[in-house]
Every structure is written in structure tokens, then in C-alpha cells.
Amino acid sequence: MNITHIIFDIDGTLLDTEDAVLLSLKDVIEENKNQPADINTLRFALGIPGPDALCRLGFDDPVYYNSRWEEKFQNYYDRIRVFDGIQTMLTELRKQQYQLGIITSKNKKEFQADFVPFGLADYFSTVICAEDTRRHKPFSEPMDKFLQLSGAKPDEAIYIGDTLYDLQCAKGAGVRFALALWGCKAPEGIAADDFLEKPEDIFDRCLQKAAL
Q: Which of 8, 156, 184, 187 could form a disulfide with 162 if both were Cys (CB 3.0 to 4.6 A apart)?
């Protein structure tokens, strides 16, 4: 197996956004449903498109309330950071001529507002956002779309993410999956092919293994 394409999730994998996502969602619930919200009950929303999460929470106009959520999210930008070791890892992967991509549940507007300012976007040649497919993670359609656009075969790619949704998206398309333990808060039950404790582990726990 010759790995040529390495694909990343954003939230919980490249960026530590958990506090910003959950606190802003809590604000939307408390302001619009007039009821308290427990952050621990909202973790299901990590890794899926905002409107899908809001539908599960009973909002009758998820597109509108997703825009409100994005507004609240901006209030917590100071809590977002690039995980340690990410930029060094991306630089080395590009130096070794791997093709890098992103599959995210963010829409294109959120990608531009929430990710691009961190200066990492130029590393990635193929980006799949929520609007690019009819169905989103955990379905395989985002990965299928990535393979179509990039020209990669399933056995030439690895997807790195932090949730069960990410694993299901990869496996549905026949792609190897590595779990980013630095961002994953509940690794139990996620049957990844590889478990990465820190970003640089990709070199010996994914790429060397895949080359054997």
C-alpha cells in the first residue's frame, strides 16, 4: 500500500475548538429556548454539521439558528488554538510530497471564518465542506467526494480525525482511519486502524506501517 493522500478533520484534529463550539451552542440554547443547557449533554454536536445538531435539539429553523450559533462562536475565538505540533507535521508532510486534504462538517463560510485565519489553509489541495455532499459524516459521501476530486484510490489515503463519525466516514469508503488522541475526548469504542498520541506519530505509526 502506497499512501499518497493524507486527509484531516478540522475541529478536534487540527484546531482545538471544543470550548468555543460547546459554549456558543450553550448560549444559543439558553437564549432561544429559555432553558439551561449542560455542556456535557452537547458533546454529540462535535463533528457533525451545525444544522444537524440543531435539528436534534428541536430547533424549528436550524439554518437560521446555525447562523446565530456562528455569531456566538465568534465570541469565543480567543479559546481556539492550533494543536501543538500540527504545523511542524504539515510542513514535513508537504516536504515529503504527500497530498494533503480536509474533510470537515463546517460549511464554506465557517471554513473561511474559523479556519483560514490560522494560516494553515495553503497546506491543503482538496477541501470538502458540508455543501459539497448531500449527506455528511458519518456517511461516506464526503470521503467519496474527496476521492473523486483528488484522484486518490481508497488504499492510497488515510483520514485523521477525532470522532466515531470520522471513522465511519472513512470506513464507509474503504479508507484507513487514524484517531487523533490529542483531540479525542472519548476514544473508547472507536476501532481505528492507528492511534496517534501526538501529531508526529503519523510518521511511524501510519506511514511506515502502511509502507510495509
A: 184
